[in-house]
Structures
1.
Amino acid sequence: MAFSLRQVRYFVAIAEIGSVSGAARQLSISQSTITEAIQELESDLGLKLVERSAHGMSLTLKGYQFLRHAEKILGEVSSARRALHENGAPTEGRLQLGVTPLVAGYVLADLLARFRRAFPFLEVSVVEDNRDYLEHLLIGGELDIAVMVLPPSLSLVSLEAELVEASRYRLWLPLGHPLAQAGGVSLRDLASEPQILLAIDEIDEAPKLVWQQMGIRPPIAFRTRSVEAVRSLVATGAGLAVLPDLTFRQWSLEGDKIEARRIQEELPAVSVGVVWRRGYRLSPTASQFLSVVQNYRTIRQRG
């Protein structure tokens, strides 16, 4: 028996929101209905897609692989329905979009998938660069809108910003590490633990500042601009990492598993926001993209 579109939609919902209860609220159905649908989907595929633990629900490695296909399936169905109802008259327009590196890796794909499902005939041109350069392009009118990691003060004098999500830091550890036995970990516990630093969008600054205030200097094992490199290095025991939760995935590219634990200290969350030039009237395509971002934010908050 082939899996159904309903099962695919439920699977994508729990993957996006991160919990069965959150997906049930969004879809206005019972949790048992979603649970039964996912069990039927796993039975049909002969694969375990979702696993539960004391720390919540997560996708298995096969679950992450299937998610890419599931999103494409829903996108194609949405495009087909829209094409049939619009009698072949596509909406025209082009969006000039900017993103910072962290957004490009961990937020952009989801936003673009949602945007293309809603507006399949609009073109999107994306520029990835650091925040300062994107601000320059926005002020100069070369970009319509940008999604970026916001500065801590949110004082963008010439720009307007709307928060998309705020992501707390967690500690990444390999399986079996002694610190993984605790529900929460203090940054003091990392004084002698080799650290893998991710040097993009200034996200390594917050933990370094706290360590400085504590008077400790954990050894730096590796500094990189690649989250996948951090994931692989942590999984193989080369060091630990303190990173925002939006970057966390349980599996490295090699199929090794890592764990994440809450940090006891209050680190400022990494804020992702959508930004445009102050006083600039958004183009129709930019306004449509902003509406997709706002819907994305609502779903993340419900989850």
2.
Amino acid sequence: MNTEFKIGSKKANKFSLLAAMSKYSVPLLFAVVCIAGAVLSKLSLKYIISDVILRLNRNLFLVIALIIPVLAGMGLNFAIVVGAIAGQIGLIFIIIMNIGGVLGLLAAVAFATPFAVLFGYGVGKILNKTKGREMITGIIMGFFSNGLYQLVFLLFMGTIIPVNNPQIILPGGIGLKNALELDIIQNSLDNIINIPIMGVKIPVFTFILIGLLCVFNQFILKTKLGQNFRALGQDIHIADVAGINVDKTRIIAMIMSTVLAAWGQIIFLQNIGTLQTYTAHEQVGRFAVAALVIGGATVTKATIGQAILGTILFHTLFSVSPAAGKNLFGDAQMGEYFRSFIAYGVIALSLVLHAWQKYMNAKEKEKL
């Protein structure tokens, strides 16, 4: 009896270990890749930690902005690009008005937020028309919004919208320059509280804001609205039968994500110090989604812990891959290609696994 129990316990432990490894296979794989990349790069540990902290400071807010739509059953929000565009509109506004420092940041947030709410509402309405195909619709919405954005800032600025600042307008007087300096607000948020620890500068205040966002997400999930998000994520049809206003709840989730993305893009760009007017928003969706998926999130489930872990792993790879590529292949560009391949590959893998899971669930329902 005891022997049978021991054998059974060993089998159970082996099964649970395999299940855990399967569940966390993506984070574990990337942890191995990051360690290998760090060794091959021959960079100092201090440099890697410093660079990863800097990248966390820039990107984590944007990644966490993806969580609510996932919980609401809307998948990975590639339309976060629209929120990033709203944030850039706020920054362009303060450049034109020449408002700098913390006041400039607050002005950018105040100006960007109404645009983000409007854009989020529009995206939410469109996604309600394409239930079950939100992610591909979000990607197309990102391309469409990019076209409108370029139309406004390449053609309308200096014609329909008067701009009397020669430092930001193209020589012909129509359209904004490709790159706008953000020196009036650069690091104004990070420098509010900036503590050096073992030679590494920690932008404490920015991380406090990220912590407050995490608390806000947890608080929302405990409210009735958060329970509605979860109900939608579990089964949209049952949620509808239960009396939840499905379309309205989905629009609220998209507005919240878009507003957070706008604020996250402002945090990101104030740290960079330069706004690439026509391209700064293009990679936001893919890189944020890739970071979330690398942390172990799926199309139907995401947590703050997964967002933090994924951002650390993804940007550790970003930090070490150029040097690793140079040492391994004699060309730093190989590292750039590798991390771009990783960004797109992990998203593709996530979508394939999601489609396979839906197929298997449908098969199980047929058997019942």
3.
Amino acid sequence: MVVLILLALLLLFVVVVLAKTVRIVPQAQAAIVERFGKYKASLPAGLNLLVPFIDRVRYMIDLREQVVSFPPQPVITEDNLVVSIDTVIYFQVTNPVAATYEIANYIQAVEQLTMTTLRNIVGGMDLEEALTSRDAINSRLRGVLDEATGKWGIRVNRVELKGIDPPPSIKDSMEKQMRADRDKRAAILTAEGQRQSAILTAEGAKQSAILTAEGDREAQILRAQADREAQILRAQGEGQAIQTVFQAIHDGQPDQSLLAYQYLQMMPKIAEGDANKVWIVPSEIGKALEGLGSTMTNLQGIPKDATPRVRVDMGEPIQAAAADSSQAGAHAAVQEALAAARGAAVGSQAAAAAQPTDSEADSGPAVEPPLEPGS
């Protein structure tokens, strides 16, 4: 029984000795070994053997890059405004021995050094410059921290400002300033738009007036040309009509009987009208017709020789038979009109002979019937 207890104690002692002798260090870490309270060595990653009960691992240092975010810190700017700035530090332990024995708590030391350096840098800037110079602040802060933490076995890789928060009153003023600036730019843009619109409207009105004037001018020119051409065509038409009528009269070869017949046809039209209340046919109608025939013979424009000198193109020529038949009909109508007029004159003379008056003595010679045209 005693032997078993001794064996158990011996086995326990062996296990403890092995635990104190063998030490496994993880990757990217370093173990600080002390012997009797004094630094002896730094154990690398892997399996390491120690002297039991003499050597012991005092610290385990992480060699990876570490990220530490510090809470916002109040900082006074050059224009006496208090702003809150929070930072983020990226650092890495390069010398585990210095990080262990040169500084008690390197994370707290980095935080305090960051806060003091940040106040020094931002204190020389106004608020506007501090808000727009983050890159410059980061560079200067990283340079100061890297220089100060070098002896601690720490390398500062990067410093970032997470946020710069001015006081609420300053935020309100900045918002008002930004709003006023935007309103100013909006007013400027609106004014420029109205100016461009007015310019374009004026140019459009100018072009419209020019085009309207040009259109009126061209329209007046075209109307004048149309009136001129219309007058020319009317004059040419009237001239051709007169020449055609004149040619037709000469082609028809009118005689005295036709002229007398035309005169008799015009007499009823002369009697028409409200002013002609009484129309008297004189007894000397035969002599008047005879005198009319003899007068028409010598009228200007009706030559004795009816053969025209210049022919006018009348289209299709008139057939000779049709012309003879029309002349025969006109001659017959003229003979009938002359006979009717002669009968009326004979009746009036008989009535005058039956009832003689005082005027017979003063009257001239008896009216002889007119000769037939062409006799």
